[in-house]
Amino acid sequence: MIRYLGSWILAGLILSGVGLSAQEDMSLIPAGSYTPFIKGITEEVEVEGFLLDKYAVTNADFLEFVKANPDWSPENVKSLFADSGYLTHWPVNYLNDKDLESNMEPVVNVSWFAANAYCKWKGKRLPTLHEWEYAALALPKNDSDSAALTRINSDWYSRKTAVHAKVGSTYENQYGVWDMYGLVWEWVDNFNTVISNEDSRNNEDAPQGLFCGSASLNASDASDYVAFIRFAYRGSLKANYTTRKMGFRCAKTIK
Amino acid sequence: MKSITFLLFALILSFSACKEQAAEKNSCCSTKPAMAQKTSGGMPETSLYQLNQQWKNQNGEPVQLSDFKGSPVVMTMIFTHCEYACPMMVNDLKMVEDQFTEKHQNVKFVLISFDHERDTPDRLLEYAKTQQLGENWVLLHGHAGKVKELAMVLDISYEQLENGAFAHANKKFVLNAQGELVFSQEGLQTKAEPVLKALNKLL
Lengths: 255, 203
Prior knowledge:
The complex is a heterodimer of chains A (255) and B (203).
Chain A: H1 2-17, E1 26-29, E2 32-34, E3 45-47, E4 50-53, H2 59-68, H3 98-101, H4 112-121, H5 129-136, H6 148-158, E5 185-186, H7 213-216, H8 225-235, E6 246-247, E7 251-253
Parallel strand pairs in A: 5-6
Antiparallel strand pairs in A: 1-4, 2-3, 4-7
Chain B: H1 2-20, E1 39-40, E2 43-44, E3 54-56, E4 62-64, E5 73-78, H2 85-98, E6 108-113, H3 121-130, E7 137-140, H4 144-154, E8 158-160, E9 166-168, E10 171-175, E11 181-186, H5 193-202
Parallel strand pairs in B: 5-6, 6-7
Antiparallel strand pairs in B: 1-2, 3-4, 5-10, 8-9, 10-11
């Protein structure tokens, strides 16, 4: 805990200094390090401080984006960039749908390309895998029980049906970021990164080491089954895939 | 009356469908036609050339992927500081080229660099010379965001390592004249025949 103290103080300083001009819809994630679930090695990964959206992008947010960027409408989007599931949960007449205009549920059925384009449009970017995982490690606000996240995750993963819930309805973490777990899965910039430590000679498309015994011995925390699922799931995605459970939020580099 | 309204409606429908998707065979009813038949900007929707990106070739000239439209392309992603995998990859492609005959004269080899920092056009030109790559080889340099998008389209996973090198999947692709992926091969020291076969189907 001590080693986090420095970054908390720093974060406080930055927040009180430049924080006033920082966007209110984003939280500062202070610099630090974490050990990814699988790296093939046990080294910690350093993460620089960055800004992260407090909430996942909602249907209402995304509707604005589509209105401003007709290339990303369900009719116009190219299959290279989004599969046929793209925004299929929207009503046909989405342009004039009052409910959608104010819908605060996280947008799903969006591809990586669409998420990437949205964040660019906002002057932001998608968080990297390490940024996302690092920010998600923060415990719920006012909760010092380190098992709290595991509980949230296990409850979430064992739910059989997708629950339609608004952003900001699960839990807020210590950085002030909501719903990192419990609402939707989220795209990250480099979801298809080479996670295992194999060199380029024999690495395969998907991190295959993830699925066999040898690599799981390298897992930094073998009990972290939920992280295992998350990493494995990412490896199965392609950038034009859309699913009913996958949304996103944006990040920003601190200048 | 009912049937007249219906006819009118059908007419309007078919008219607007023709206007928007002239090249499409099956434009009757669905707002989301079958993928293979969907076109946009005169190109199939699944064409890589839908990526509207600017690159620079080894001569420092601006290049768009769609500039390769009209001829088959063999494509891969590399970086020139790569000591092991990429030279092998380039070698694999040279083996393909070695078996070319007259009919293959329009085939282009397009190598895109992962390394947006070090692989400047100058560096790529130097690499092309050392590797003795001919005129039909194009090496492309572009910013990190473009590299990422292209790698996403090609489903090539990669990661920059701390020493500046890139861990990456080794894949070769054949694109048809429209920029659609028609063949991919994974691995190193692969056989040339499957690539040639894919190319020959296009010629």
